[in-house]
Design goal:
Radius of gyration: 21 Å
Largest sheet: 2 strands, antiparallel
Structural class: mainly alpha
Strand content: under 5%
Number of helices: 21
Distance between the termini: 46 Å
């Protein structure tokens, strides 16, 4: 076996280990050195995850990596299939752009040195979460994710950020404990925690039903699905821009991804009748409430944060549509719509929050009333926001349009047209608050007395993500092809 073969066979572990070593190294050095470590680690991550994705595509099978030779149920298996590969690739792409943006965003002060180690640690936790196939290992990943995310929210030290961080950690810990109680009940009932073993052994009984209910409630609190979204807007809006982008584009997708995996194991058994429909109704409420609140905001970052509340709602429409499907292909269509929306939203929302950070640095203000006429003196940020907004609204040819088209098609094929109506109404509401901001940017206002010219890094980096959110609308078929084998298996499990 050559060195190349050895590295390739250990790639899942190496990918996470590189981030952990980089996080530790960044913690021990000064700001400039930590920044250099993060940039190298980010580029390595993008290369290694692309390599892993290529292997998964070539094998057309699930890649199971046994950590230390001790597999499930006692040891740890890292499982890379099409869905986890896509989520890891999204994390690597957004993470790489956020790292480059952060290199130009933060002043070279040691007060921000901790950002690099916390960010790399969070990144490692995200990868471990997407590769985990065990309920308890997922709990550990969630905790590691929460600790680093809360630290990042509070890193500016400002009063609003500290208050938002406190609310975030209390909500996240409550969600974790509820989830953990659910895991304990499921283990008491089945004696296993590995997803593959659970799928074979789970049966309908009160203990397992209570465990499933608690796990879903805990994860909904961490995902911030309406009405448990109260912690999200202040946390995302008051954090520094790179952190807002990571939280909104990536972190909320982690707990959603776990719900997706859990539902595939339990829903097909009618464990809790009507659960998929309840999640869909909460998703519709999130779309309407989040959009209405976004429309009323006077701060740009708060508007974008409430937009996240609304966009999270779309993710949960996949559950009632998959449950209502009469055949596997329709179920695959609905599940693909949800996962593709996660990718499109991750790219567009990352671009939107990073652009908001650039605008705030340029104007010294987050208030919309100060942004009239922005397109004349900061055209690239204004253009970037508009491009990302196209995907958020769901206009062609964006990724947002592709995901909503898949949703509408699957809703029509299942005969559940009301879910399609919710998607269309949500798009119209999104258009109201996005075009309100774009109209302001294109307006005739005068620039503030003091305008700071932002450096090229934080101006161009968000544009890359915004353009990618458009490109996947036209060239997104490889993503759907990569998702297909895993989604077919998962969607079959969720059908009744």
């Amino acid at each position: 076996m050559t060195m190349f073969d050895v590295i390739q066979s250990q790639l899942p572990a190496i990918t996470i280990a590189v981030l952990l070593f980089a996080a530790s190294g960044a913690f021990l050095v000064r700001f400039e050195s930590a920044r250099a470590i993060a940039l190298v680690a980010a580029i390595l991550q993008l290369l290694m995850v692309s390599w892993m994705t290529w292997i998964v595509v070539g094998q057309e099978a699930v890649w199971v990596y046994t950590v230390g030779g001790w597999g499930a149920p006692l040891g740890i298996d890292l499982t890379i299939d099409g869905t986890s590969a896509v989520m890891m690739l999204l994390t690597a792409v957004v993470g790489c752009v956020v790292t480059i943006y952060s290199a130009g965003y933060f002043p070279p002060k040691d007060s921000y040195r901790l950002f690099w180690s916390l960010w790399l640690f969070l990144w490692a936790a995200m990868f471990a979460l997407f590769a985990s196939n065990d309920l308890f290992n997922l709990y550990v990943c969630l905790e590691l994710l929460t600790i680093s995310a809360v630290g990042l929210v509070a890193i500016s030290g400002e009063r609003a950020a500290l208050f938002a961080g406190m609310r975030y950690i209390l909500s996240a810990l409550a969600g974790s404990l509820i989830y953990l109680f659910g895991v304990a009940l499921v283990y008491a009932s089945t004696g296993v925690l590995d997803f593959d073993l659970l799928a074979a052994q789970v049966s309908v009984d009160p203990t397992t039903q209570a465990g499933l209910a608690l796990m879903v409630i805990g994860l909904l609190l961490k995902t911030a699905l309406f009405p448990m979204h109260f912690w999200l807007p202040p946390a995302h809006a008051n954090a520094v821009a790179p952190v807002s982008a990571v939280l909104s584009a990536l972190v909320v997708k982690g707990s959603f991804y776990i719900i997706f995996k859990i539902m595939h194991v339990f829903v097909g058994h009618e464990m809790i009748p009507g659960l998929a429909e309840v999640l869909g109704i909460l998703g519709v409420c999130a779309i309407i409430w989040g959009s209405a609140m976004a429309l009323m905001q006077k701060r740009l970052k708060m508007l974008v944060a409430y937009s996240t509340v609304a966009q999270i709602g779309y993710l949960f429409l996949l559950f009632p549509l998959v449950a209502a499907a009469d055949d596997v292909q329709t179920a695959v269509l609905a599940a693909s719509a949800g996962l593709f929306h996660a990718v499109a939203h991750g790219l567009a929302k990352g671009a939107m929050f990073l652009t908001a950070g650039t605008i705030v640095k340029t104007l010294g203000s987050d208030h919309l009333e100060d942004m009239a006429g922005l397109s004349r003196f900061a055209p690239i940020p204004a253009f970037t926001f508009a491009i990302a907004g196209v995907s958020m609204v769901g206009l062609p040819p964006s990724g947002g349009f592709a995901s909503k088209w898949l949703y509408v098609t699957s809703a029509i094929e299942t005969g559940a047209w009301w879910w399609a109506a919710a998607v269309v109404v949500g798009g119209l509401l999104a258009a109201l608050y996005i075009f309100k901001v774009i109209a302001l940017f294109m307006g005739s206002g005068q620039p503030p007395a003091q305008v700071t010219v932002s450096n090229r890094t934080i101006t161009v980096a968000p544009l890359v993500l915004a353009l990618m959110s458009l490109v996947i609308g036209v060239f997104g078929q490889p993503i759907l092809d990569l998702l297909y084998p895993a989604v077919e298996s998962l969607a079959s499990g969720m059908m009744r």
